[in-house]
Amino acid sequence: MAELKNGCFPDDAAFKEAVCVDVGRVYDSCCDRDCLEDLRCFFLPDAQELVNEASNVRLRSAEVLKVYINVEPVNFHKGFFSCDLTFFFRLEFDIYTSPNTCPQQIKGVTSFTKKVILYGSEGNVKSFSSVIDNDDNCNTLAIQSSNMPKCVVQTVDPIPLSARKGEIHDCYDNVRCIPKCICDFLGGEVITNQHKGDTTIYVTIGLFSIIQLIRNVQMLIPVYDFCIPEKQCDTGTTDQPCDIFSRIKFPTDDFFPPRRNDDCENFGCSCKNNEE
Q1: For residue 177, is it within any domain?
Q2: What are phi and psi of 32, to 5 degrees?
Q3: Is 93 in contact with 57 (CB distance < 8 Å)?
Q4: pTM assigned to the model
Q5: % of the chain beyond a pLDDT of 70
Q6: Mind giving me the DSSP string for 232-260?
Q7: First-to-final CA distance of the chain
Q8: Domain span including residue 57
Q9: Alpha-carbon distance 107 to 47, whole Å?
Q10: Contacts made by residues 10-19, CB under 8 angstroms, sequence distance 24+
Q11: I want to staple 41 with a disulfide (CB 3.0 to 4.6 A). Which of 108, 119, 135, 150 is the partner?
Q12: Where are any strands of DSSP class E within the chain?
């Protein structure tokens, strides 16, 4: 077996054969930075009562629960597809019901919808596999859409920016059917039938995302050797807790935070070489 050097094969590694593999090729992608302002939040009944009594609110954290994706071809523009994305977020708040009191923590949900158009090439092949789906019921729609590209969304947890208590001005503001699986994360059904003038919380969060349009293709790649692991598995059952602790590196940086180097002109820049 050829030995790896820094995770790569050396230049003089022997090429063995060309292998055809079926992989997902990214035909198009984009990255986005969305500042989502004044998203209306929805709460369980007991949490909504605290919101009604709140004198101040603070957004603690935000988390992406799920992204629902729908891909449709763009008419009169062959090879391009419209990706409709619906993000659902779980939010945690500190609720202050009166001054100089400890806050109470509640959770809520909100959502955001966006659309992007990406190139996914054309494909008229219907793929079938020997792997049988447990829910195989001859779904005609699934067969017809088997030549569609796959949309993949990558995201990190949003950045909580602000939250404010306010009145509902439009009963249909940001209201949509909230799936049961989203409500289950909060432990029950959220209230969606509020009226104009009722109290709610509006949040602003920052979202970073990468959207990719992927289609399975057959590609020819060079092969050098099989990937045989050289590291032995560590069961971790023979060591005592103190033995494991003794091998952990002392967290010096946590006790002595590094200072900013005066040679750096901007935060995060590469320092100049003083040896020149």
Answers
A1: yes
A2: -140, 150
A3: yes
A4: 0.72
A5: 76
A6: PP----SS-HHHHHHTSPP-HHHHSPPPP
A7: 43
A8: 33-123+141-213
A9: 7
A10: 13/224, 14/224, 15/222, 15/223, 15/224, 16/223, 16/224, 16/225, 17/222, 17/223, 18/220, 18/221, 18/222, 18/223, 19/220, 19/221, 19/222, 19/223
A11: 108
A12: 17-40, 42-43, 56-73, 80-96, 104-119, 150-155, 159-167, 199-223
Looking at residue 6, its amino acid is N
Cβ-contact 38, 129 below 8 angstroms: no
In a domain, 97, yes or no: yes
Q: Which pair of structure tokens corresponds to residue 109?
A: 């949900």
Exposed, middle or buried, 131 (CB in 10 Å: 0-12/13-18/19+)?
Answer: exposed
pLDDT band for 29, please (50, 70, 90 cuts): very high
Establish if 59 belongs to a structural domain.
yes
Using 50, 70 and 90 to split pLDDT, how confident is the model at 246? confident
Average pLDDT of the segment spanning 163-191: 80
Phi and psi of 244, rounded to 5°? -65, -40
Number of domains making up the chain:
1
Cα 107 to its chain centre, rounded Å, is 19
Partners of 19 in beta bridges: 221
Q: How far is CA 62 from the centre of its chain?
A: 12
Q: Compute φ and ψ for 259, nearest 5 degrees.
A: -90, 165
Beta strands at 42-43 and 150-155: parallel, antiparallel or unpaired: unpaired
Position 134 in a domain? no
